[in-house]
Design a protein that fits this description.
Length: 306
């Protein structure tokens, strides 16, 4: 797909089903600030509310993107629309099919853009690459010898022109892969091998509930005791209930609408004072569970099923 190619956006804008609008590819690799993995196709094909999720198709009928967003001061189309590249969408689908969730690569660095002033300070030839602002102790980058102040200029065989390109490059790399990373340090270029790991937040999401036992992981739940300050704010007695700290995507807890920060007070009509209480109550219900939850100062019942 090239800038200038003709494309057609298909969708249901304003409820008008099977609407097709035509335009060209205005730009590729657009960064909107929607997240660290932005990589949008920009098009002037008319995209309006209701188009999101519809395909962006080239002249040969091939899907090249998934319509996702517009820039519009008034809420309607002004010729600036965005689509997720189909390669990225396909990767996400493959991840979910294989793992049940999106598994991203991680190396343990915090980065920032290289400005012209910073480039001069670090002895670089131009304002390119990703400046390492911090390194996670014990992480893959730290183990490989990458340090604060290094500038990552190449990830494998791909050049890093701007810092915002690196997070997606790393995320798309399968955990366990060893990648040669080229860095600039004190004006000298060197290459180190980095062993990519799975992003910790995703790993914890699967395992954090396990130590408490009681089968909470089967419901996709991680909880911790309710602290005295939290209990006071919620108008509860200390030791009453447990706080939801994590909910696994696609799990029974997620499907039921549980959210981090919810306080589970009862499970299957039994009072909950600890993770063990919750595990035993859920085990008694086998495939179904009725929860009494405190959320935003109100009590609500939530039913989970698996």
């Amino acid at each position: 797909l090239k800038v200038g190619d003709w494309v057609v956006a298909i969708g249901n804008p304003f409820g008008l089903t099977q609407t097709a609008t035509a335009g060209i590819v205005s730009a590729k690799g657009r960064f909107l600030g929607a997240g660290p993995y932005d990589d949008f196709i920009q098009t002037d094909a008319s995209i309006n509310p209701g188009n999101s999720g519809g395909p962006l198709v080239d002249q040969d009928g091939r899907v090249v993107g998934i319509n996702a967003a517009i820039v519009s001061p008034a809420g309607g189309n002004v010729g600036i629309g965005f689509a997720v590249p189909v390669a990225l969408a396909r990767w996400v689908v493959d991840q979910i099919r294989e793992h049940g969730a999106v598994v991203r690569g991680w190396v343990g660095v915090a980065i920032q853009a290289v400005t012209p002033d910073l480039a001069r300070s670090f002895g670089l030839h131009g304002a390119e690459g990703a400046l390492v602002a911090d390194v996670t102790p014990g992480g893959p980058a730290a183990k490989a010898g990458i340090a604060r102040g290094d500038v990552i200029v190449r990830w494998g065989d791909r050049r890093v022109q701007h810092s915002r390109e690196l997070p997606l490059m790393v995320a798309l790399t399968a955990p366990g892969t060893r990648v040669p990373v080229t860095i600039m340090r004190e004006g000298q270029e060197r290459t180190v091998d980095v062993a990519v790991e799975r992003m910790p937040a995703e790993g914890r999401r699967e395992s954090r509930a396990a130590p408490h036992g009681g089968g909470l992981e089967g419901w996709g739940l991680a909880v911790e005791p309710l602290g005295p300050d939290q209990a006071r704010r919620l108008g509860l007695k200390a030791g009453t209930g447990v706080v939801v700290t994590d909910v696994a995507d696609g799990s029974p807890a997620d499907e039921a609408g549980l959210e981090p920060g919810d306080v589970i007070v009862e499970a299957n009509r039994r009072p909950v004072r600890s993770a063990g209480d919750l595990g035993r109550a859920l085990a008694a219900g086998r495939q179904r569970a009725l929860l009494l939850v405190r959320r935003n100062g109100a009590s609500i019942f939530i039913e989970m099923e698996r």
